[in-house]
Design brief:
Blueprint lengths: L4 H8 L4 H11 L4 H12 L4 E6 L11 E6 L5 H26 L3 H4 L12 H10 L8 E5 L5 H11 L3 E5 L10 E4 L2 E4 L1 H4 L4 E5 L6 H12 L2 E6 L2 E6 L3 E6 L11 H5 L6 H4 L4 E6 L3 H17 L8 H14 L5 E2 L4 H13 L10 H17 L4 E2 L1 H15 L32 E2 L34
Parallel strand pairs: 3-10, 3-11, 4-7, 7-10, 11-14, 12-13
Antiparallel strand pairs: 1-2, 5-6, 8-9
Length: 463
């Protein structure tokens, strides 16, 4: 770019305060030559500064800002330079923010799921961790209606960078699979969520023709459809997150043996879910606590704070960034995993599902997702303990009596520092919605809960 006399004069003067601050912020992300050229353009007023930020709420993450450089001058060389350095600055600034957020991820993401639902922390944690799984990791929330299962599914779908949401019964001809109509291919919930999470509400209403598609998607990563008399495949590499009601809608009884008879699925499908939570309506004591919570919120006029659009955008980017991390399992953890699984096998009669190879595979995928949520490249003992705790919460359907405590091998692997074993839990209670802040009380113009276009417009049931 040719210099004028005025350009020469400008180069003699120091940068103004705003430009100096912006250049200082940009320099740590740029090569020396790029920083030097940027200073040159700033002195000549060929570019101006726009500060960019996430706009996250303080509860999620302390907001971070970084400079972007724009120009109104029609100069292709300048335009190309600014676009390149803007991309570099943004990528590195976001990476800094993600690394700073990583240690807090598993503490701050689960509470954002179904904020109107009191309790169910293990379920929310499992749903949050599933967002970070790269391999198939399937979750089933099986239990009484009106316990908030659908709300968890909806909020999980909002945070997923890619996914679908809809009813197990489907509202289109494609259902869960795919349908060819002439030259048009209509995708169902599973292929729509390829490489993402397929959130399926009321899976117990699934049509028989969709069962084979679900098996294939969960195990093999594709579904088939007929076209011209031939079977064609379409990718459906999904993690399934589903809700279902028991036979008769409400569970009766407490023991695994009795509850098992009320499960609406056969063993072949049930065993494909790596995490299965039995969710019951709250007992009298828990309902009293919920009532007190609702009254307290009403008296203080304290509304439930749902995740802001900026928070959701930040988390989607964070999950996408974490997806690029390949997590390895430390071989030294083998003994701890074997001991834990051995203990679970000894307690198998207390579970709805059997303990088998899929249990081990699911645990490994689970702890890798936990590590990835913290941007760790390998699974450590803490990740394993968290994963064992989640898996235990999903398996034990009732608290054993004092005469039948689980064997030591069935407890979470002990830390060398003497960390306490996590207690065996009762069935996960699904405290009812905070009625004054129910999603259904929102403005009729608020479509944040509406199924996305990627879900074939399928609506939600009331699981």
């Amino acid at each position: 770019m040719a210099k004028t006399l005025w350009d020469t004069i400008r180069l003699l003067f120091p940068l103004g305060h705003e430009k100096r601050i912006a250049l200082g912020s940009a320099q740590k992300y740029l090569a020396a030559d790029d920083a030097k050229l940027l200073r040159y353009y700033l002195k000549l007023d060929r570019t101006f500064v726009q500060m960019q930020r996430f706009n996250t709420t303080p509860e999620l993450f302390e907001d971070k800002e970084w400079p972007l450089f724009k120009s109104h001058i029609k100069d292709e060389e300048l335009k190309g330079f600014l676009e390149r350095i803007d991309a570099e600055i943004a990528a590195k600034a976001k990476e800094e923010a993600f690394i700073a957020f990583a240690p807090h991820a598993l503490e701050r993401i689960p509470p954002l799921l179904a904020r109107n639902i009191i309790g169910m922390d293990p379920v929310k944690t499992a749903a949050a961790v599933q967002l970070f799984a790269k391999e198939p990791l399937h979750l089933l929330l099986l239990g009484d209606p009106g316990t908030g299962k659908t709300d968890i599914l909806r909020s999980q779908h909002r945070l997923a960078p890619k996914g679908s949401f809809g009813l197990g019964s489907g509202t289109s001809g494609a259902g869960l699979s795919a349908l060819a109509k002439g030259d048009t291919l209509i995708l169902g919930l599973l292929p729509l969520a390829d490489e993402g999470i397929a959130c399926i509400d009321e899976l117990n209403l699934m049509k028989p023709k969709d069962s084979a598609a679900l098996y294939n998607a969960m195990e093999k990563g594709f579904v088939t459809y007929d076209k011209g008399g031939k079977h064609e495949q379409v990718p459906a590499r999904v993690r399934v997150s589903a809700t279902a009601n028991p036979v008769g809608d409400t569970f009766i009884g407490q023991s695994a043996e009795i509850l098992r008879k009320q499960v609406p699925f056969d063993d072949a499908l049930l065993s494909r879910f790596h995490l299965l939570f039995i969710i019951r309506k709250p007992n009298d004591e828990e309902f009293e606590q919920i009532t007190r919570h609702i009254v307290k919120h009403d008296s203080t006029k304290e509304a439930v704070k749902y995740p802001s659009a900026a928070d959701i955008a930040f988390l989607k980017e964070y999950i996408g960034y974490a997806d690029g991390i390949d997590v390895t399992l430390d071989p030294s953890l083998e003994g701890r995993i074997v001991a834990f699984i051995k203990g679970l096998k000894a307690d198998e009669r207390k579970f709805i599902t059997e303990v088998g190879p899929r249990t081990v595979v699911g645990l490994i995928r689970l702890v890798k997702a936990i590590a990835r949520a913290e941007l760790a490249q390998s699974v450590d003992k803490n990740h394993l303990d968290v994963g064992c705790g989640i898996l235990r919460e999903s398996l034990y359907v009732r608290k054993p009596e004092s005469s039948e405590q689980p064997s030591r091998q069935g407890d979470a692997p002990r830390q060398e520092d003497g960390a306490k074993r996590a207690p065996v839990r009762r069935p996960i209670k699904g405290p009812t919605r905070d009625l004054d802040n129910d999603d259904r009380k929102r403005s009729p113009h608020d479509h944040s809960d509406a199924p996305s276009a990627s879900a074939d417009g399928q609506g939600s049931g009331g699981a």
